[in-house]
Amino acid sequence: MNERRREKYERLIAAVKALPPLPTAVAHPCDEASLRGAIDAARLGIITPILVGPRERIEAVAKAAKLDISACEFVEAPFSHAAAEAAVALVRAGRAEALMKGSLHTDELMAAVVQRDTGLRTERRLSHCFIMDVPNHPTTLFITDAAINIAPTLEDKVDIVQNAIELAHALGNAAPKVAILSAMETVNPKVQSTIDAAALCKMADRGQITGGVLDGPLALDNAISPEAASIKKIGGPVAGVADILIVPDLEAGNMLAKSLSFLADADAAGIVLGARVPIILTSRADTLLTRLASCAVAALLARHRRDLLARTVR
Predict the structure, then answer these.
(1) For residue 215, what are the β-bridge partners?
(2) Pairing of strands 127-133, 141-144
(3) What values do phi and psi take at 18, rounded to 5?
(4) At 159, phi and psi to the nearest 5?
């Protein structure tokens, strides 16, 4: 195994050990993978889980998997839809500072999140971000959006970019380099993603997007490979060294993330941004380390938001 494998996630997890555990509503953790992820994150002091769902079923899963859940708070909910609604209600009541997906479908959880009067919406559009630990790549790669926005408009992409920049700030990157991806590096009126890329970069110039350095359109190779950027004579502060990859649509993002996972042996932690609190969106195929990394990302983002709020109040 490559010696650098997982080192980025290990640094993430180490970074949160000095923080107080993040109170987290875990919606319907009714299989071993989701329950174990929450309990192991609690054991490491990353989160304090509130288990939301049918208590008898969760206890049966814990017994079969030999997991100690005696210290966990329970909120009874008879089925998955009810668990999602109850978990969101815990956040609205201030009892939880993060939301974690259990063994329910993503659309069930997000349906509760996006409810206008009872959900967790903000003025920002929700978006998903993969935080990818790719072996042999020197830095963590953020890929967005590969899970929520199917065919984002230019207006949607403004929020997708801003959400990702805020996440990078929370993880310690004060000036993330943002590549707006397409299939080419030049603006082509026949390819909408190149037009969107050019518009996003100009919006950043005008202060409509802040906190990061944008460039695009860029193809994937010259966004992450200095050699490819040099060969194509593409300069600028982003080419070859991008931290954040903004994909044209969900299909492109999903294929990019899964290609890195299955062909480059990358790990892909995931989080939903743009809501009142971080939403930890894990997959049944995630490794334990990936689940822990997702929890660590949520904890760092929650701390960042608390710090911003404290500075605003002062």
Answers:
(1) 179
(2) antiparallel
(3) -85, -5
(4) -70, -40
279 neighbors 146 (Cβ within 8 angstroms): no
Cα–Cα nearest to 12, from 292, 302, 286: 292
Number of H helices, E strands in the chain: 11, 11
Find the mean pLDDT for residues 178-182.
98
Taking the CA atoms of residue 3, residue 181, residue 297 and residue 82 in that order, the dihedral angle to the nearest 10 degrees is -130
Q: How far apart are CA 41 and CA 12, in angstroms?
A: 13
149-168 pLDDT, tens digit per residue, is 999 999 999 999 999 999 99
Q: Is the separation of the CB atoms in 131 and 268 below 8 Å?
A: yes
Superfamily of domain 124-274: Isopropylmalate Dehydrogenase (3.40.718.10)
Mean pLDDT, rounded, of the chain: 94
Q: Give the span between the Cα atoms of 91 and 120, in whole angstroms.
A: 8
**Backbone phi, then psi, for 132, in 5-degree steps?**
-105, 130
Secondary structure (DSSP) of 187-239: --TT-HHHHHHHHHHHHHHTTSS-SSEEEEEE-HHHHH-HHHHHHTT--SSST
Q: In the chain, pLDDT over 90 holds for what percent of residues?
A: 87
Residues 160 and 183: their CA atoms lie apart, in Å, by 19
Residue type, 10: E
Q: Residue 1 has what pLDDT?
A: 40
